[in-house]
Predict the 3D structure of the following.
Amino acid sequence: IEQGLSKNPDETTKGYLLVNKAQLLAVSGRLKEAVQLLENIMSPESIATNILLAKMTLKMIQQNSENETSR
């Protein structure tokens, strides 16, 4: 992911890489960092595809976190 980000990817590719990074952070227990990264992706400067992908991923992470808490 970091290598891809260092190659100055187009906006769509950058969005996918950052969302994947957020997912990895979430599964490693770094939820605050994951949420913060996704919120950054959802900034008004982002393209619509990245915003939608980040919103869907954030919802999934929040649901998974709630499921883990209820166990």
Summary: The CA atoms of residues 22 and 34 lie 4 Å apart. The mean pLDDT is 94. Helices lie at 2-6, 11-27, 31-41, 48-69. The chain has four helices and no strands.
